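Intended use. Records such as the ArsR/SmtB family transcription factor entry shown here are meant for training and evaluating sequence-to-structure methods. They are not intended to support clinical decisions.
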Amino acid sequence: MDKLGFNDSGDLKQFEEPANLLKALSHPIRLCIVRGLMRKKKCNVSYMQECLDLPQSTVSQHLQKLRSAGIVDTERNGLEVNYILANQRIEQIITVLFGEDEC
């Protein structure tokens, strides 16, 4: 340990996954999508587009970023594709940010 109490081994790999999760959440629309999925449990793009009053392409781009980060996943029901939260830790992060009453 150095004077500041940080690990001086230079092993920053342990911080990569949490940093990537926070990067993916660092947009108001993506935060809104995740909080909405916490409340509703699953949702399709059309419903999100309507709620957010945004073009479908914009919502899809944000969902792709969340999916790439492992925050959301898809669940197929016939032709309909629903998005669900894929990472339990995200619910904890959102609850810390907004409080339990808001989530």
